[in-house]
Design brief:
257 residues; Nucleotidyltransferase, domain 5; six-stranded mixed β-sheet; 7 helices; 11 strands
Length: 257
């Protein structure tokens, strides 16, 4: 029996995460580097080869849904979907049914990735939620118990901050991105690691407390490509949910197909 597959694309500034969805569950993920210079054929060949090598059939792909924060790639992915899967993808954006009430000054400014996080969190967790998404940027997203997107916080991401630091200083080199053993560094590399990892964790701890001071108690959900690096350094209680955004794509696909 053929399995009906939905491909979920989470296109970020650094990586493209592709989720293979069967029966509303993510059964496999692939990760590609985001590169606006690649053609639809280069993406199409790579993606189809990854699917085939994992035992999936191209003809079983029933649909595609795309969340993108890289507009120059949108047309490339749209052409690729038509050429290699004979499908028109759904792009996350204004006009899609989401079940989330957006309480922003300008709702059209809401990024696709932020909406995905809100949709998935609202579907999986009750009450107020604070989503901490660690990627190219560090984002905190606030959704209340009424399914209202209240807003959030955007700060420079760990790698972005590190690259800025190293490029602005002549004598500092980029260390391995890892948590050091101690908060107090004993050499330049461990000092930078401490500032990056423990500094980000302390920022998240503090911002979550401030958000709770404004909205009351809330469930904290940790996700994003760099969340694995930070999660053991946090002092706040949280739920680690690495596939949150991909689940958001599945939910939006089912609401809008």
């Amino acid at each position: 029996m053929n399995k009906k597959i939905v491909l979920c694309f989470d296109i970020g500034n650094t990586h493209i995460v592709i989720g293979v969805c069967i029966d509303d569950k993510i059964v496999k993920t692939f990760r590609l580097s985001t590169n606006v210079k690649l053609t639809e054929d280069e993406y199409g060949v790579t993606i189809t080869e990854m699917l085939l090598s994992s035992g999936y059939k191209i003809e079983d792909v029933q649909g595609l849904i795309v969340s993108s924060v890289v507009p120059p790639l949108d047309h490339t992915i749209e052409i690729m979907a038509d050429k290699y899967f004979n499908k028109k993808p759904i792009f996350v954006g204004p006009g899609l049914k989401s079940g989330i009430k957006i309480k922003l000054e300008n709702p059209k400014q809401l990024g696709a990735d932020l909406l995905l996080a809100a949709v998935a969190a609202r579907d999986s967790y009750s009450g107020n939620v604070i989503i901490v998404d660690l990627g190219t940027a560090t984002k905190l997203i606030v959704v209340n118990a009424k399914s209202e997107f209240l807003g959030g916080i955007i700060a420079p991401g760990i790698i972005s901050s590190l690259n800025s630091l190293v490029s602005s200083t002549a004598k500092l080199n980029l260390p391995k991105l890892a948590a050091p053993k101690n908060v107090i560094g004993r050499d330049t590399a461990s000092c930078i690691q401490s500032g990056s990892v423990f500094g980000t964790a302390a920022m998240i701890d503090g911002l979550v407390k401030r958000i709770k001071d404004e909205i009351g108690e809330a469930t904290v959900i940790l996700t994003g490509g760099l969340s694995e690096l930070i999660k053991d350094s946090l002092t706040i209680p949280y739920i680690y949910d690495k596939d949150l955004l991909l689940r958001g794509l599945i939910i939006l696909y089912n609401k809008n197909k």
